[in-house]
Write a structure and sequence with these properties.
Helices cover 45% and strands 15% of the residues. It has 368 residues and is α+β, with helices and mostly antiparallel strands.
Length: 368
């Protein structure tokens, strides 16, 4: 199907279109018929796309009880940034080129396409029956362990792989791209200028953030030095779903299936970026202080189990500090933008506070 023919709004999705796409994806028998559709908005905590749940009514046969469809953000400002950073292209290509054969812990994708006006359409498995993570609430040690082991498998798959240069050069170096470093540095400076007035942060953190703004391009450069891999780039609880193990499975991390959505920030980077982003944003400071070291160790063990040898903890710890500072920049920029709702404003405010504490606890200023 030509991407030029993709629906650009929920109203443009018809039973016939959905039926044909599911048959093409082998998710529906060719003899099945969809008689009706119910389409309703659903809030998955993102700001860069509009998401809807489709509930088909089957006249004959049966197929998925519900699906998720994602369109570009309705807000013009959000769409503009998404196109500038190629977020839509990255997410579509992540599903088309990376998620094949189960290489990503991503939902099943039935359609992934870019429209000729720079938009996207994703038709995805509905994960609504699984537990959706909550960045504000945090998670258990078992869930954090499972999340880091899941992303470690992704990192190990592409760790230092020749394909990163040969086939995946379309992925930018770092989440923002080294070629955009100076422009994003300006956005970081503006975001931090607003955040230091609006968010209660420790006074001793402020000169560190000032220095991080100055050193931002250098921090990106360090995160883009080998060994590189494919990273999610926005790996936090709001983008994760958990299949909880039953009692018979023992309740351990290995029995907990983690699925990640919102692959718009996917890039080539040091793998520890995802780890620092997850732990710095998702765990309340007291929990993080207790669990940070064992969880980082569990991540390194998972890498080694998947064939990544010789990655020293000292190198990982330094990149962890760099990544915390880069994550703070991302959230300072996000905090300065328009928020879809009060919860997203709070997500940014709490995230900045947690990252500031993590930066101080890890003496991340040493890398500046």
């Amino acid at each position: 199907m030509s991407d030029a023919l993709l629906p650009r709004s929920p109203a443009a999705i018809t039973p016939e279109w959905l039926e044909a796409r599911l048959v093409e994806a082998r998710a529906l028998a060719s003899s099945a018929r969809i008689a009706s559709l119910r389409i309703a908005p659903v809030d998955l905590g993102g700001v860069n796309g509009d998401v809807y749940r489709i509930t088909p009514g089957y006249a004959t046969g049966s197929g998925p009880a519900s699906l998720i469809v994602k369109f570009p953000a309705s807000a013009a400002a959000s769409r503009g940034v998404a196109r500038f950073q190629r977020w839509y292209e990255r997410e579509v290509r992540a599903y088309r080129e990376l998620a094949t054969a189960g290489a990503l812990p991503a939902p099943t994708c039935y359609v992934a396409g870019l429209t000729d006006d720079g938009g996207l359409l994703l038709l995805l498995e509905d994960l609504g029956a699984r537990r959706h993570g909550d960045q504000l609430a945090g998670c258990s040690k078992r869930e954090a362990d499972a999340a880091l082991r899941a992303i470690a498998r992704v990192h190990a798959r592409w760790w230092g792989a020749p394909a990163l240069e040969r086939d995946l050069a379309w992925l930018p170096l770092t989440t923002v791209g080294l070629d955009r470093a100076q422009g994003v540095q300006g956005a970081f400076a503006r975001g931090w200028g607003l955040a230091r007035q609006a968010v209660a942060l420790p006074a001793r953190f402020r000169p560190i953030a000032d220095r991080a703004v100055e050193r931002y391009p250098a921090l990106l450069e360090e995160a883009a030095t080998p060994p590189l891999t494919v990273v999610h780039g926005d790996y936090r609880l709001d983008n994760l779903f958990f299949d909880e193990p039953d009692a018979a499975a023992g309740g351990d991390a290995a029995a907990t299936r983690v699925t990640a959505i919102d692959w718009q920030f996917t890039c080539r980077c040091r793998g520890v970026y995802d780890v620092a982003y997850f732990l710095g944003l998702d765990l309340p400071p007291d929990d993080r202080r207790t669990l940070e070291r064992p969880l980082l160790d569990a991540y390194l063990e998972a890498l080694a189990a998947d064939g990544v040898a010789g990655y020293e903890r000292g190198a990982a710890q330094r990149m962890y500090a760099v990544a915390l500072l880069l994550a703070f920049a991302t959230f300072a920029i996000g905090a300065a933008g328009a928020h879809a709702d009060e919860r997203m404003r709070l997500v940014h405010e709490v995230g900045l506070g947690r990252l500031a504490e993590a930066i101080l606890d890890n003496d991340a200023a040493r890398v500046l």
